[in-house]
Amino acid sequence: MTDPMIVSGTANDIDSLRLQLIAGSEKIQQQLIPQLAEMGNEGLEVLKEFLLKRRDTPATWIDGKAYQALYNCDAPTAREFLQTNFPEGIVPLKSDCGINYNPLQELLARQDYQAADRLTNQNLCELAGPQAAQRKWLYFTEVDTLPIQDLQTINRLWLVHSEGKFGYSVQRDIWLSLGKNWDSLWSKIGWKEGIKWTRYPNEFIWDLSAPKGHLPLSNQLRGVRVIASLLSHPAWHKT
C-alpha cells in the first residue's frame, strides 16, 4: 500500500519526490524508488543523485534498492552511470584471499538469489582451501579459518541487495533472539515445517517474499555444526 504522503509521480512532482527520497523514512524511500524508476529519465536522474550523495557512507539496503533499480532498467545511461561511478557496485569487495566478489554482486543486484546462493557456497569453499573447493562443502572445523573480511563482504552483499532480509548476520540475530534454539530457527526462516525439512531447490523461496533470514542456505544433512560455526564466527563481533 502506497504511503499517502507520497506525491503522485508526474513530471511536475519531481522536485517533491526528490525531497521525499532524501528526507523520507525507509518505508517512504522503499516505495519511491520503483516509482521513480518508472518515470523515465527524470526519475532515473533523481536515483543517480541519491546514490552519489550517499556514496561516502556505508551502503544500506535502501542504497541497494536504488542501485538495483538503475542496474535492472533498460536505459543505457543508467548502466553507463553505474559503470562510471560504481564499477564494482556499492559494497566494497574486500577479500583477504584475493577472491573476486563481482560475480556475486552482479547476481544479487539482479536478484537472482538461487544462483547467488550457489556461488556463495562456492566462495566459502574456496576460502576454506583447495580440499573444500574440490569436495564443494565445508567441514565445521574449516569455518573458523574463514577470513573475517571475506565473510563480512559476502554478508554485506546479501544484506544490501535483499532489503535487509537475507544474510548470515540476519540469521544470527534471529537465532540469538530464539535462545539459540535450532528447531525454532528452522521454522522461523522457512527451512522446516513441523517435522518436514524444506526440500532443495524447489521448496525454497528464491525471492523477497521469503521469510526473513531464509537465505543464504547451509546444508543441514550433516548436522548443525557448520551453521553453528558460521553464526558464531568472530566476523559478527567486528565492524
Distance between the termini: 35 Å
Helical content class = 40-55%
Biggest sheet layout: 2 strands, antiparallel
The largest beta-sheet arranges its strands as 1-2
CATH superfamily of the largest domain: Gun4-like
- CATH class call of the largest domain: Mainly Alpha
For the CA atoms, what is the radius of gyration? 19 Å
* CATH domain topology of the largest domain: Arc Repressor Mutant, subunit A
User: What is the count of distinct domains?
Assistant: 2
Number of helices: 13
Q: What is the succession of H and E elements?
A: HHHHHHHHHHHHEEH
| Beta strand % | under 5%
Number of strands: 2
What brief labels describe this structure?
single chain; 239 residues; mainly alpha; Serine Threonine Protein Phosphatase 5, Tetratricopeptide repeat; Arc Repressor Mutant, subunit A; 2 domains; two-stranded antiparallel sheet; 13 helices; tetrapyrrole binding; GUN4_N; GUN4-like_sf
Give a description of the structure.
- The protein is an all-alpha fold and 239 residues long.
- The chain has 2 domains: 75 residues, Serine Threonine Protein Phosphatase 5, Tetratricopeptide repeat (Alpha Horseshoe); 128 residues, Arc Repressor Mutant, subunit A, CATH 1.10.10.1770.
- It has a two-stranded antiparallel ribbon.
- Helix 3 runs antiparallel to helix 4 and helix 6 packs antiparallel against helix 7.
- It is globular and about 55 Å long.
